């Protein structure tokens, strides 16, 4: 049965709750950030107070490609400013992965497909309460391009889809870097962030801490014996293309 239409505006707040110190910059202190979650319905009219123009639509679209400078390691409660969750709404966690950093602190910009992975968790714990947390995928590329002490970003490898400024420091021959930004998978009680050109990264489902690279295919292949002609051909092709995808040439 389809759930009834509802619209919920979610407000990030740090009042009386633990928070991350750098979640909001000083220039935006006191100005809450909002995210809207809505289920579309053809029979539900759009409130006249909501802006409806091509400029507004373009601005909303542009926000999809904005860098996220801060993480939220400590879960934050999302406060409903409009509406409420429907009665009987399922409890659980919704994970979302996507680009988090596409413009560094030194003027370089990468294609969104090369943006560093940013994992978020929305935990529905009952009573209309939703807890939010977010962390970057600690890939090898992220550790290299993010200064541990200052948390400043400096892109060092362009990525296949990117065009960086010519003064890039420490250029590399690698065309691809595993940024683990494509999707998120919960499988067998484990949590993974995926990327088409490399191995998945595994996470601790509660804290969102990065565990590390996981070669699931190699593990599965080790449990198989023999295999037909199709399996042998697939293994042969994978052996040739995998080093290229990982930039090992």
Keywords, separated by commas or semicolons:
single chain; alpha+beta; 2 domains; 6-stranded antiparallel beta sheet; 4-stranded antiparallel beta sheet; 10 strands; 27% strand
At a glance:
The protein has 249 residues and is of the alpha+beta class.
Explain how this protein is built.
- It is a single chain.
- With 249 residues, the chain is an alpha+beta fold.
- It starts with 6 loop residues before the first strand and ends with a helix.
- A 6-stranded antiparallel sheet has the order 2-1-3-6-5-4, with no helix packed on it.
- The model is unreliable at 1-42 (pLDDT under 50).
- The relative contact order is 0.12.
- A hairpin with a 2-residue loop joins strand 7 and strand 8.
- Helix content is 16%, strand content 27%.
- The chain has 2 domains: 7-214, no CATH class; 217-249, no CATH class.
Poorly predicted residue ranges = 1-42
Per DSSP, the total helix count is 4
List how many beta strands DSSP finds.
Answer: 10
Helical residue percent band: 10-25%
Mean pLDDT: 73
Number of domains: 2
Order of neighbouring strands in the sheet with most strands:
2-1-3-6-5-4
SSE order and pairing:
Elements: E1 7-12, E2 34-38, H1 54-63, E3 72-82, E4 92-101, E5 116-126, E6 129-136, H2 140-145, E7 183-187, E8 190-194, E9 201-203, E10 210-213, H3 216-223, H4 229-245
Antiparallel strand pairs: 1-2, 1-3, 3-6, 4-5, 5-6, 7-8, 8-9, 9-10
């Amino acid at each position: 049965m389809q759930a009834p239409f509802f619209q919920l505006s979610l407000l990030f707040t740090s009042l009386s709750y633990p928070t991350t110190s750098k979640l909001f910059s000083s220039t935006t202190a006191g100005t809450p950030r909002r995210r809207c979650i809505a289920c579309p319905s053809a029979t539900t009219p759009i409130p006249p107070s909501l802006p409806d123009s091509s400029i507004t639509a373009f601005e909303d679209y542009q926000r999809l490609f904005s860098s996220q400078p801060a993480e939220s390691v400590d879960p934050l409660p999302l406060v409903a400013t409009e509406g409420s969750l429907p009665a009987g709404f399922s409890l659980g966690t919704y994970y979302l992965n996507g680009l988090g950093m596409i413009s560094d602190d030194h003027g370089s910009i990468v294609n969104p497909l090369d943006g560093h992975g940013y994992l978020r968790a929305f935990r529905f714990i009952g009573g209309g309460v939703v807890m939010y947390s977010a962390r970057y995928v600690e890939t090898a590329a992220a550790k290299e391009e993010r200064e541990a002490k200052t948390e400043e970003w400096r892109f060092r490898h362009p990525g296949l889809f990117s065009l960086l400024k010519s003064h890039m420091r420490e250029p590399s021959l690698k065309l691809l870097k595993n940024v683990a930004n494509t999707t998120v998978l919960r499988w067998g009680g484990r949590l993974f962030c995926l990327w088409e050109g490399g191995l998945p990264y595994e996470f601790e489902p509660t804290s969102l801490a990065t565990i590390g690279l996981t070669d699931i295919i190699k593990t599965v292949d080790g449990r198989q014996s023999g295999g037909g002609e199709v399996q042998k051909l697939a293994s042969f092709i994978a052996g040739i293309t995998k080093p290229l995808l990982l930039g090992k040439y």
